[in-house]
Amino acid sequence: MPVYEYECTQCGRIEEVTQKFSDKALTNCRRCAGKLQKLISQSSFHLKGTGWYVTDYSSKSQCSSAPDKAKDKASTSKTNKSDKTAKQK
Fold first, then answer.
1. In the chain, what are the domain boundaries?
2. CA geometry: angle at 4 spanning 26 and 19, to 5°?
3. Is 1 exposed, middle or buried (0-12, 13-18, 19+ CB in 10 A)?
4. How does pLDDT run across 21-76, given as a tens digit for each residue?
5. In what helix (H) or strand (E) does residue 5 lie, and over which residues does it extend?
6. CA angle at residue 47 from 39 to 41, to 5 degrees?
C-alpha cells in the first residue's frame, strides 16, 4: 500500500499515513483538528535489470565522448607546439 504525506495548515505538522488507493483522503489533523493538505513527494521507484537507459545506453554515450576529448587534447598540444616555434623565431 502506498504511503501518503499530509501537512496541517494550522500547526504545520507533517503526518505519513499508509492508505489504500480506494481510501478517502484525510481531512482533519489528529493533533489540532486543522485542515490537512495532501503533499506530493518523490517516490523511491527504481527500474532494475537490463533494457533501461541507465544500464544499456548511458555507458555507450560516455564511450563516444572519449574520442572527442582525445581530439581536443591533440589540437591543444598542436597549438602549444606552434606557439613555441613562433616564439623561437
1. 3-39
2. 70
3. exposed
4. 899 999 999 999 999 999 987 777 777 777 777 667 765 555 554 455 555 555 55
5. strand 3-8
6. 10
Query: Which residues make Cβ contacts (< 8 Å) with residue 39, sequence separation at least 6?
Result: 4, 5, 6, 7, 14
| Phi, psi (deg, nearest 5) at residue 5 | -110, 135
C-alpha cell at 35: 485542515
Instruction: Report residue 52 as a C-alpha cell.
Output: 533501461
- d(C-alpha 49, C-alpha 55), whole Å: 7
Per-residue model confidence (pLDDT) at position 82:
53
N residues, the chain: 89
Cell reading at 88? 623561437
Cα 63–Cα 64–Cα 68 angle in degrees, nearest 5:
115
Is the model's pLDDT at 13 over the cut of 90? yes
